[in-house]
Specification:
Distance between the termini: 166 Å
Oligomer: single chain
Largest sheet: none
Order of helices and strands: HHH
Structural class: mainly alpha
Mean pLDDT: 86
Length: about 170
């Protein structure tokens, strides 16, 4: 075999030294370049996978947050509608209460006006009775031609009472 190498022009020592050099170079490149490069590539791959995973989770969270936001907005709209409805009901109840109180006040005013009218009518009747007493007294004095101090007060009162009774019957009828 050595003749074969010799005829081909291959020096086995040189071939062996080149093989050893290749193995040394391969070992150095493997430890110095390939392994760190593979390690960097693997780390980068993990970072990319992690980034994709985190991005997917963030997208899912965003969708969940959007869904939750829509639910909360729906609830807020319902609550706002209920608050407005409640406010309208309270306002209507307040208005009804004010109307009822106004009606009661109007009734009270009418009753008071009726009482005032009755009092005035009674005052007018009393004034008329007083004037009637005076007129009857004057009539009796003229009729009897007596001194005004001598006129019997009982007679005057009786006449006034009769006139008052007649005037009360007239005012009622």
């Amino acid at each position: 075999m050595s003749e074969l190498f010799h005829q081909l022009g291959v020096d086995w020592k040189l071939l062996l030294s080149q093989g050893v050099n290749f193995l040394i170079l391969l070992a150095v490149l493997t430890f110095v370049l390939f392994r760190p490069l593979l390690k960097v590539l693997e780390e980068r791959k993990k970072k990319i996978e992690l980034g994709l995973k985190v991005g997917k989770e963030a997208e899912e969270r965003l969708l969940a947050i959007d869904k939750m936001k829509e639910e909360k907005l729906g609830e807020a709209e319902k609550m706002a509608f209920e608050i407005v409805k409640k406010g309208e009901a309270e306002a209507k109840a307040g208005a009804d209460k004010i109307i009822i109180e106004g009606g009661k006040k109007a009734d009270d005013i009418l009753k008071e006006a009726g009482q005032i009218a009755e009092r005035r009518q009674e005052e007018a009747r009393l004034a008329m009775a007083k004037e009637a007493k005076t007129l009857v007294r004057a009539a009796i004095i003229k009729t009897v031609q007596l001194d005004p101090n001598a006129v019997d007060a009982a007679l005057v009162s009786q006449a006034v009472d009769e006139i008052s009774g007649l005037s009360a019957k007239i005012s009622r009828g």
